[in-house]
Amino acid sequence: xxxxxxxxxxxxxxxxxxxxxxxxxxxxxxxxxxxxxxxxxxxxxxxxxxxxxxxxxxxxxxxxxxxxxxxxxxxxxxxxxxxxxxxxxxxxxxxxxxxxxxxxxxxxxxxxxxxxxxxxxxxxxxxxxxxxxxxxxxxxxxxxxxxxxxxxxxxxxxxxxxxxxxxxxxxxxxxxxxxxxxxxxxxxxxxxxxxxxxxxxxxxxxxxxxxxxxxxxxxxxxxxxxxxxxxxxxxxxxxxxxxxxxxxxxxxxxxxxxxxxxxxxxxxxxxxxxxxxxxxxxxxxxxxxxxxxxxxxxxxxxxxxxxxxxxxxxxxxxxxxxxxxxxxxxxxxxxxxxxxxxxxxxxxxxxxxxxxxxxxxxxxxxxxxxxxxxxxxxxxxxxxxxxxxxxxxxxxxxxxxxxxxxxxxxxxxxxxxxxxxxxxxxxxxxxxxxxxxxxxxxxxxxxxxxxxxxxxxxxxxxxxxxxxxxxxxxxxxxxxxxxxxxxxxxxxxxxxxxxxxxxxxxxxxxxxxxxxxxxxxxxxxxxxxxxxxxxxxxxxxxxxxxxxxxxxxxxxxxxxxxxxxxxxxxxxxxxxxxxxxxxxxxxxxxxxxxxxxxxxxxxxxxxxxxxxxxxxxxxxxxxxxxxxxxxxxxxxxxxxxxxxxxxxxxxxxxxxxxxxxxxxxxxxxxxxxxxxxxxxxxxxxxxxxxxxxxxxxxxxxxxxxxxxxxxxxxxxxxxxxxxxxxxxxxxxxxxxxxxxxxxxxxxxx
Length: 749
Description:
Elements: H1 2-33, H2 35-46, E1 47-52, E2 59-60, E3 66-78, H3 80-86, H4 89-100, H5 104-111, E4 124-125, H6 135-152, E5 159-168, H7 176-179, H8 193-197, H9 199-203, E6 207-212, E7 226-228, E8 235-238, H10 242-259, E9 263-270, E10 275-282, H11 302-305, H12 315-324, E11 333-335, E12 338-341, E13 344-347, E14 356-358, H13 359-365, H14 368-379, H15 381-390, E15 408-409, H16 414-420, E16 427-428, H17 431-442, E17 446-448, E18 453-457, E19 464-466, E20 471-474, H18 478-493, E21 511-521, E22 524-538, E23 545-552, H19 561-579, H20 593-598, E24 600-602, H21 611-620, E25 624-628, E26 636-638, E27 644-646, E28 650-654, H22 671-680, E29 684-689, E30 692-701, E31 704-712
Parallel strand pairs: 2-8, 25-28, 29-31
Antiparallel strand pairs: 1-6, 2-3, 3-4, 3-5, 6-7, 8-18, 9-10, 9-23, 11-14, 12-13, 15-16, 17-20, 18-19, 21-22, 22-23, 24-27, 26-28, 30-31
Helix pairs in contact: 4-5, 4-6, 10-19, 12-14, 12-15, 12-18, 13-18, 14-15, 14-16
């Protein structure tokens, strides 16, 4: 018996000893061998990390107007568990369907969503219709909440609004192809504008906060915290001018509706720096609602990605080469109509020609024969190709937009070189290449790198990196470039035979060239399909702007570049030059007293008028004008009612209080008029010098806007001319109908 008890005691003791041995071994294993693993696991349990999202940098125009910015957004979610407890499933489904447009069947699936254990979820987001909605939708959802809570006498009906942020484009579709867009995850979409090209600079770096919490996840006071500060994205200022961009898109929309082409592209730039002032394509899209555009071609930036046979606008390069080499004699004559080159006969648009005409007349009429003789015969294939290369064709320009095409310059046969001299054949160019090339003629011979970003600013340090104008190479001497501009001016100013006459604006000296390129089809060129274009710059003696309008397949194939694209260039250039403060050079002193009297207009009283009614009245009286503000009625005007102005001057219509309006360009105005206008805008004024405004500087002093006006005397005869800041009225001078067919090219016999 005693022996049995001893055995049991030993057995129990052995088991207990073994248990403790195993326990100590396990403790040793956990505490020593796996110490690092369990330490990390423990920290993971009690340590929490909260991400602080970075704000994407804003994008503005050259004057600081916001074009893209992060804005508050809200994600709509529901609580299926609570909704079922209240029995309001159908009310939630119907209410959210009416507000968000999400199908009722999908909403029912969300309302009835259950976990694997059969319990209803506590929260489900309404994707994607309810994801990152704006304030307007949020207000409607909150009203639905309030109505249901009141109806059912409860404090919660299972609708949740989660605050976040999203990318917002205040001007909707304006400049869409420049800006690009980001998706709902705030990720830049590849290949779309500045948002994608400068994604690294714009997106910044998220910050974080790491802290210790108890078992319930509540932060432990006084516990150590690790804070990584957020680094917001850099701000980007574009070179584009919001007002000129608006003028461009307004003119495009009118022409697009009338001509019904496949697509349309317009580029406006400063030829001296190649800063892009405006760039647009049609069809376009709204980056705020990019998902609504199922047709992907609406996102395509033809200005930098599409290639075309340019047609007669390319003749500027041939002319430039001939002039630079001293081979162009404007008075020398040639026989128009047709010319034979190896393997092909090339014709003018008027196949019978105009007989023996001068080369200058050939330029005005856009004679193919003239340019074949200049490019193929006088310059020769090798030198012609060299000029084409020097002007940047076949190479990317380097503009800060993704997916730029480089085009192609690949002539092989003699007929290819002959066709290239008038913009056809083995030659494909992009619109941006054309603008850069012709700008080199306008600015005195310098091929510039086009750019669309003016500066990049770090919001934390204030450090700003400016984009400096970059000269790629000199392609012409200044005197030869000036000579070429003189010939191109006559293409516009000759109202009888000039193919560019449709862009003529009285008071502005404009140089221009039209283009009508027949598109290649199966078995040759298809004359029913054309790319028509017009490129021009002004003023000729001091170019401030260059504009290219390109229209792909207008519905009427009989229209040439002059009659289709010319009026678009005219409207854009007239408004843009006035907005830029470039005065019209109208010689009133040389006019008769009757003409002088006719050029003086009396300013009507517009106070309280609806804006459109005021605009119509001014148009009927032939008065140019600019509207300041976004109001619906006129609250002030300048000059005052009863004042007399010249027909070359214009009025300002104010639709908001002055302190809320942007400051217009008053360059070229007298001190008296500039002060009177700026006083209406409630800004302080400082002057330097005497005479007329030649420069203005805007600053902020003690929280108030201040404008410093730099004044200089003007030349005699110019003192009465005042610069226009912008125009919404259009040019009142019509084109004469000379019954001259616009230029076209034929690339086959």
